[in-house]
Specification:
mainly alpha, MetI-like fold, 15 helices, 73% helix, 0% strand, globular
Length: 322
């Protein structure tokens, strides 16, 4: 009797829960997020990377689209207006020949950014090629890594100075002063900046070639070239992208240093480093001539570094999981 009373007193929840489930309809399923959306979500949460990307884009738009708005000729000489400070007619002042500094800053920015991008691309191709070959082919690993160590041991700036002094006149005579120096700068910076990329790519390739999907592809007779192209390279994109962003900053600094030493582009072809070199003798009279190109170099390098830092965090699945 006691057991029947307890059974009667307890409500039967099974029927109610089942009825609620049946009447509530299907539960909407959240579609899985793609890898690209996860990378983008991680990237936009990195405030420094977002700010760096915005600043870098603004600098690129300013140097490439600015001359279409500010149409003063960067080569026009006005002796009467030389060494003037900032004004409405010349917001960044004028140089020792009366040329508008704002126009020269934008033209110089085009050259500096292009040198950075092209030199980075060359160094990235060399570094990726050497890193993949060293990591995938054990017989080449020792030779290529010793070559990498040799380049890392060489003093960068003296090596660049020697290359410029040896080939500047020959390339200028063959392609013209501006094109010849551009080719020399890009080549010299590119072939002396591939080593970090090669080391990073080699390490990733060594780990990837022992993974199950690579072993499975090898077991069905996939050629080495196809393994590298379809299975290895797509999985080392993230370190390559990060190296690319950091390589732009290093190339811009290197070009500016060479131009500041007077071994870069000719005086009538401005770059940010060349503008600094020309402004040294006028630092006391017109300090803005040093501040403006120096600030442009600093902002560009800082923004690219923050952008690379954010891309590294967004592309690394271990950091995304954290």
């Amino acid at each position: 009797m006691t057991e029947d009373r307890r059974t009667t007193a307890e409500p039967d929840l099974t029927a109610e829960v089942l009825d609620a489930v049946l009447t509530s309809g299907p539960v909407p399923l959240t579609p899985p997020r793609s890898q690209l959306s996860e990378v983008w979500s991680q990237f936009i949460h990195h405030k420094g990377a977002v700010a760096g990307g915005v600043v870098f884009l603004l600098i690129v738009f300013a140097v490439f689209l600015g001359p279409q708005i500010w149409t003063l000729d960067a080569t026009y000489i006005d002796i009467r207006a030389r060494n003037q400070g900032p004004s409405l007619a010349h917001p960044f002042g004028t140089d020792q020949l009366g040329r508008d500094m704002l126009s020269r800053m934008m033209i110089g920015g085009q050259t500096s950014v292009l040198v950075g991008i092209v030199a980075m691309s060359l160094g990235l191709v060399l570094g990726t090629l050497i890193g993949v070959l060293a990591g995938f082919y054990r017989r080449l690993d020792g030779l290529l890594m010793r070559l990498t160590d040799l380049f890392l041991a060489l003093p960068l700036l003296p090596l660049l100075l020697v290359m410029v002094m040896l080939f500047r006149d020959r390339l200028s005579a063959a392609f013209g002063p501006e094109t010849g120096i551009f080719i020399l700068m890009v080549t010299a910076i590119g072939i002396t900046s591939w080593m970090p990329t090669a080391r990073i790519v080699r390490g990733d390739v060594l780990a990837l070639k022992e993974r199950e999907f690579v072993l499975a592809a090898r077991s069905i007779g996939t050629s080495n070239l196809m393994l590298i192209a379809r299975h290895i390279l797509p999985n080392v994109v993230s370190p390559i992208v990060v190296s690319a962003t950091l390589g732009i900053a290093n190339a811009i600094i290197t070009e500016s240093a060479l131009s500041f030493l007077g071994l870069g582009f000719p005086p009538d072809f401005p770059t940010w480093g060349r503008l600094l070199f020309d402004a040294v003798d006028y630092m006391q009279q017109n300090p803005e001539r040093v501040i403006m190109p120096g600030l442009a170099i600093s902002l560009t390098v800082l923004s690219v570094n923050y952008l690379g830092d954010g891309l590294r965090d967004a592309l690394d699945p271990r950091i995304r999981g954290r």
